[in-house]
Input
Amino acid sequence: MKSTKKKSNLFLTIMGDEKRQKITIPLFAILLSLIAGAILMLSLGKNPIEGYLSLLKGCGLMMKKNYAGGKGMLTDFMSFLDIWTPMIFAALAVAVAYKAGLFNIGVSGQMLLAGFVASLTVGYSDLPAVAAKPLTIIIGMIVGALAGSLIRLLKYKFNINEVVTAIMLNYIFQYIISFFILTYYVHPITRQSNVVSDASRLTLQNVQIGNMKSVIPLGFILAIVAVFALSYFINRTRVGFELKAVGANKKGAIYAGINANKSIMIAMALSGALAGLAGVTYYMGYVASIQPKVLISTGFDAVAVCLLGNSNPIGIVASSFLVTIISKGSIYLNSSLGLPKEIASLITGLLLLFTACDVYIKYRLKKAKDHLEYEEKEAQRYIEKYGEQKKEGEQ
Amino acid sequence: MNEIIVNGMSFSIPLFIIAVGGIYSERSGVTNLALEGFMGAGAFFGALFTALTAGVFASTSNLPMYLSLFVAMAGGALYAIIHAVLCIKFKANQVISGVVVNILAMALTDFLTSQINESVLGHSADKFILNVFPRLTVESLTGIPVLGGFFTNAYIFEFIIIAVAVVAWYVMYKTRYGMRLRACGDNPYAVDAAGCNVGRIQFAAVMVSGALSGLGGMCFAYSVFGHYSTSIYAGYGYLAIAALIFGNWKIPATLGACLLFGFARAAGYSLIQYLELPGTYSDLIMILPYVLTLLLLMIFSKNNRAPRALGEIYDKGKR
Amino acid sequence: MSEYIVEMRHVTKRFPGIVANDDVSLGIKKGEIFALLGENGAGKSTLMSILFGMYEPDEGEVYVRGKKVETFSPNHATELNIGMVHQHFKLVSNYTITENIILGMEPQKKKFGFLPVVDIKNTNKKIAELSKKFGLEVDPTQKIENINVSMQQRVEILKMLYREAEILIFDEPTAVLTPQEIEFLLEIIREMRRNGKTIILITHKLEEIKQVADRCAIMNRGKLIEICDVAETSTKKMAELMVGREVSFTQEKTPCKPGEVMLKVENLVVKNADGFPVVNGVSFNIRSGEIFAIAGVAGNGQVEIADAIAGLAPAAGGKVILDGQDITNSPVKARNKMGIAYIPEDRQTWGLILDFTLSENLLLRRYDIAPYCVNGVLHREHFTEKSEELIEHFDIRSGQGGQTIVRSMSGGNQQKAIIAREIDLDTPFVIFVQPTRGLDIGAIERIHSQIIAERDKGKAILLVSLELDEIMNLADTIGVIYNGQLLKIAPAETMTSNEVGQYMMGVKE
Output
C-alpha cells in the first residue's frame, strides 16, 4: 500500500500539472511504444538501438555507411520531407475537425478524390508549371472542402453519423476512382493511373544539388505555412475561437451566442481542404500516379498523429515527424537489418493504442492528486483536533 | 437466378453475424467501430489454426475448417478485450478506441502473418491459404423455384451462422443477461440500481461482439477471399455497422439489411456478366452496398433510435 | 436490541470542500413514517444514501435491526430489505413496467423443460396483484416512455415492494408531482405504514410532513438540529428550526425605487423536448431598479422562463419584450447586444467553457467586438488586460491568473468569473438563476450584495432561486411559480416566507 502511494507520487511529479500533462502524456505514450518496439526487435534477435538508428538513417537524419551513386543523406532527407508533407496536412485535417468536436475519419478518401480530380484537370493538361502548380493546389483544396462539407451536410440534413458517412464515402471514392482509372486512365504496364505532367507536380524531380540528384518537395513549404496559418486561425481569429468553443462545449458556445452549426460546417470544409492538400501533395507530389483500389493509410495514421500531437498544429509537426520517421525509415530498417517492414506500422499502432489511453492516465493522475490532497487535509485536521487536545492535556 | 442467391447469401450471412456482434456491443451502450478489427483479428486466429494444424489432420478432413470457426470466435473475443478495456475500464472515447483497435488489428495481423509464415511455417508469404469450405445442396429442395436456390451449393457455414444467430437472438431477448444488456444501453444507472455490475455486462457484450465478428470474418475469408491476408480489411466491418444502424439495432431487421446489401452486390455482378461488360465494371458494383447504405440512411436515420445511452461513458459515481 | 430498526451513530461524511453530514445520530422506529426536513444542501439525501449503501460514512456507524452494517452497497441494503426511490428515477425507458421492476432479479422458467427464459407473462400478473394490494394501480405491460412522471414513481415504489423492502426511503418524492398526485402518494405512504413498513421521507415541504409523518428530524448545513414529534410541534416551529439557529444574515437593502418597465413577458409558453408545456402562460413585468424574484420548488418551469428570455430555449407561445422591442425570436447574440446578461443555473454546462482559460471565459461575451476583435482577428493583449481588470475587481482566485484552465478552478471562483463577466457587460437587464448554489456563506453574501448593487444602479433584475431565504432577502417583487404558472405576484414586503412557501407548494390559491 505504502509503496504504491509513493510510486504514484513520483509519477505525478514527473507528469506535472494539467498543462504540463499535455506534453508529458504523449511523451509517455511514445516511450511506451518505443519500449514495446524494442522488445519486438529483441524478440526477433536484433539490437533495438541499431534498429532505431537505422530508422533515422533511412530518413536522412543520420549518415548511412554508404550511398549509391548520386545519392546521399540530403537526397534521403528530401525524400523524407516529401512523404512527411502529406502526413502534416492530413493530421491538420483531422485536428481542425477534432477542434470543433468532430471526427474526420474520411481523410484518406478525401485525399484520393482531390488527387484524382486534380490529376484529371491539371495533371493531364499541358499547362505550364507556373499555372499548373497553383491550380493543382487550388483544385485540391476545393475538391477536398466539398467532400468534407458533404459529410457534415449529411449529418445536418439527415442525421447520419459522420463516422459512418466518412467511411462509406471512403469506399465509394476508392471504387469509383478505381473504375475510372482502370477504364480510362490506366497505364498498360504499371497498371496504375497515367503519370501526371512534371509541370503540375508539386515535388520537383531530379534537381541537381552538388553531385547529387534530389527531389525538392515544394509542398513542404506549403505545409509549414499551413501549420502556422492554422495555428494563427485557431488561436488568433474570431472564427477559430468560435470553432474551438463549439468543440469544447457546444452548449456553452450557444450560450455565448455562437452559431454552432455554422462553425461545424466551416470546420469540416477546412478539414476537407487540408485533406485535399494532403491528397495533391501525395498523389501529385510524392508519387505521380494513383494505384487503383488502394486507399493509402495516411488518413488513418493521421488520426494517431493528431491525437499524439494534442490536435495542436505545432504538436502535430512533432508527432508527424516521429510517425513518418517510423514508416519511412522502415524501408531501410528492412534492407539494412532484415527486420520486417510491418514492424513500423505495428509500432505506430501501439503508439496509437497508448495514446488512446490518455483519458485513463489523466484520470489516474487526478485521482492520485486528489488522494494526496485529501491525505494532507486529513493530516492537518488530525493535528488540529488531537494536537490541541494534547496541548490541553499537557497543561 | 440461383447464382445470385448463392453469391448473395454467401456475402450476406457472414455480414449479418458481424452486425449481430455489433448489436450486442451497441445495445449494451458501447459504440463499436471496431468490428472491422475484431473480424480481421478473429479470422487471423482461425486461419492461423488451419495453417498450424495442416499436418495434424487428414488432408481430406473437413474438421479443421469447422474447428477454425471456433478458433476465430475465441480469437475475436480475445482481441475484443482491447476495445472493452479501453472503453469500459479506461473510459476512453469509444469512437477513437474503435478506430485505434482497427488500425492496430491490421498492423498486428499483418506483422504476425508474415512472421509466422517465415519463422514457423518456413516460407515467406503474407497470407494463409485456406481450403475450400464444404458446400451443401439439399437435392429434394432444389426443385422449388426461387426458394430452392437457398439450398443449392450453399456453404455449410451459412447454416452454422444462422444457428448461432438464433442463439444470439434468444440470449438477447429471452434471458436475464440479455435483458440486463439491453437495459445498459438505455439507462446503465437503472441497471446499477438494480444491483447488477454494468461494467461486467458491457465487457461481456463487447467480447461476444468480438466472437461473432471473428466468426463472420473467418467465413468471409473462406468465401470471398479463399485465403487470409490483410485484404480481408475491405470495410465489411463498417458495412455491418451501417447494416445494424439501418436495421435500427434489431436483429431481424438487420438480417433484412444484410440480405439487401448481399443481393444488391450479387445481382450487380451477375448483371455485368450478363451484359458482358469488362471486369473493371466490378468496381462499380463494389460501391453498391456503400451507396445503398448512404441512401437508406438518408431516409431512415431521422426516425432511427439509437440506444439511448450509446457512447455515453458510464461513471458509477455520477447520479 | 434497541427499539430502533435503523440507528445511525455519529455519522460524518465529507465531500471535497464540504462536510455533508456532521456527526449525525438518529434512530428510526419500525412502522413509523420518519421525515427528514431541511433546505437544499442540508445533507438529508447524503445521509439516506449512506443508509442505502451508496456512500460509506467517513466516521460513525449504522445499525439495521440492531446489527452493525459492515458493507455499504445498494445490493447489501436490498438484502437488508431497504429500498430507495431516488429523486431522479432510474428506469429503462424502452422497457415495460414489469421489465423495469424485475430487472436484476428476473424470475425464470424453463421452456421445453431445459431452456431458461425470463418469465414475463406470469410476472405481469404478479405485479398487477402487488400494485393492487398497495393501491398503486398500473398496467404492467406499458412502456416507461409512454407513462407520466407520477406513474413512473409508482414503478419505482413497486420496484422496492417487489424486492420486499421493509424500510422505504423516499427522496423528495413530491418535487415532480401535482397537488392531486401528491395527495395520492401520501395516501399510498400511509397505506404502506398500515402494512407494517417503515418509511423515511426526505423533503423540504413542511405541509407534507404535517400530513403524514410521525416524527421529523430537522437538518441544517449537515448537522442534525432536532428530532421532534410532528403532532406536538407547530409548522411554524419546524420552519424556524429548518431555517436554522445560525441566524441567516439579512441583507442591508434600501427600498426599491423602480423606474420604467424594462422587461415584459406576456403569456410565455415553453415546451420541453417531449412537447409538454413546462411554462404555461406566464406574464410579468420587471422595472428598472427592481429585483423580481421567482420562487418555486425545483422543476416547476422557472429555469425554462429564464432560458426563454435569454434565447437558449425557444418560446412556443407568448412574447418577450425588452425595452419596448420584441425579442421573442431573436438569436442569443442579438439579445445579448440589446441588453441581457445571464447567469445560468448550470455554470459548468452553459456558463463556462471549462477547457478554455479564465481569460477566454471572461471575454466569452465580448470576444467578437473591438478592441478584442478587429477585422476577425483576436487581440489577446486586450483579453489579458480586460481579464486582469475583472480578476482584480471581482477577486477571482486561480492558480495562474488569466491563463488558468477554468476546469481546475473551484466552484465558487467559477461562479465569480461568470458573474464578473455578465455584470461587467453593464446591460440594463440581468438574469440570475441560482446564483449562490453550492457556495459557502462568504461567497453568498458577496454575490447578494453585488445583486443589490446592480439594482441600485438602476438595472432590472430577474432572480430565480430555490432558496427561500435568498428570495426573501433580495426580492422587491416576488412571483411564485407552481407547475409552470405564476400563482402569485406581489411586492416582497407584503408576503411572509411562510406564505411564499405555501404558494410554492401550491396549497394556497
User: Anything to note?
Assistant: The beta strands of chain B are 128-129, 135-136, 154-155, 227-228. The two ends of chain B are 57 Å apart (CA to CA). The mean pLDDT of chain B is 88. Residues 198-225 of chain B form the longest helix (28 residues).
